[in-house]
Sequence to fold (494 residues):
Amino acid sequence: MELDFQQLLLTLLPDLAVVVALFAALGVDYSKLRGAALAKRYESAFRISALGLLVGLVMTVLQAAGKMPFIDSAEATHGQLNFTTGTLTLKAALFALGLTVLPLAKRDLVTTHASEYFALILLATLGMGFVVTSQNLLGAFVALETVSLSLYAMTALNQSKATSAEAGLKYLTFGAVASGFLLFGLSYLYGATGELNLANLDSVTIESNNLLIVAYLLILVGLGFKLALAPFHLWAPDVYQAAPTPVAGWIGSGSKIAAAALLLVLLQPIATSPELKEALVPALAALAVASMLVGNLGALRQTNLKRLLAYSAIANAGYLVVGVLAFSGDGNKSVLFYILVYSVGSLGAFAVISVLADRLGRDAEISDFNGYWKTMPGLSIAFMIFLLSMAGIPPLAGFLGKFYLFFAAIGAQPEAATWTDGYYWLVAFALIMSVVSLYYYLRVLKAFLVATDEDAEAKPVPVGAAAGTAIFVLAATLVALGLWPEPLLNHLGN
Fold:
């Protein structure tokens, strides 16, 4: 088939808009603003990056809605990309979340490499979009590594913290090892199935064999690192704490969406192979239990809010696997819905930390937030929405996310399943861990709500129009999806 460049360019218009913004931000900074004030350079890079992402977002939404001249993506990309309503919805969500990261990055001034900072954010966002739309094993791996390399560099950018470079090196070291495991796993998967096309994996008739089992175990190690599943989570607390707060928020949201979407696609053969399911389900269940246990119990003793959110991410990755174990369309849809609403809540929480702690030059200790309910009630309400959503409190979207996950796992059981041979015990364990999580989420909210003798330090902090708008949109999204989730669920199901 001859490559049609016109079709290809029309198909990739949203991505091209982001690429143009990336190079424009670098070009303007290098050519015109090198001697300007740092704040001015940040403002310029922010505006160019935001414009590019906004244009990309609008075009992606129009593509998903069928309002643009829709190009046959399979023909235009030779089957390497898959543009369905579901994949385009995920891509649009990633672009939207990227837009909320940009105003937070503008506030920090954590590095003199202003344009490079925003270029890395755009590059990571671009890579995430290609991960969720890729239909090729190697293409998905390259896109995921593009995301990882960008995040490694951003983690080490905070020049005000000596621990930032150390955290970046730790992230890189663990990530490189995990990428090696993932690449070996993908190569073995190709060797066992003879398929590079992800769309064909579920149609391949395969028998359980040692090569295929090893392939999936290696894939679980590689993607387990990306999702911060225990015992592959050791990097997360240090990286979340030492990285610039917007970067930590992006690690805990966008990268998780991309990794979860790829995991669902790669696990398709398990659903069609009883032998393979019997061999690998115990490993997945063990990862879920370990992550929920390590994450929730580890969060109980944290005094730093960013480290607490890191352990919360570990626990939530465990909940995610419960939905994965359903191996059904409803299960996949629930996993994607859950990771999206969790990402919104996590990014929102980091946005509030960026506004308050980073602005005051603090290290985000929980005690640093004492009494802010009195001086900044709007921001406190938003923060309450983010934490309660992650805790799974109705009527917020996080409650529905967990409900759909657990319901999908229960619904996937055979009629004769018991507590011991089905997933009932796993769902029960997840519910117990959800109750445990309430303690540390409410402990953080108590700092905001309860007055102390040091409340005089809780002075109002300038939020800024862009950051305030981002926080409001994130909070409103969780409320809206909690009350009206059907449109998003329907899109994700396609």
About this structure: The chain has one domain: 5-492. The mean pLDDT is 86.
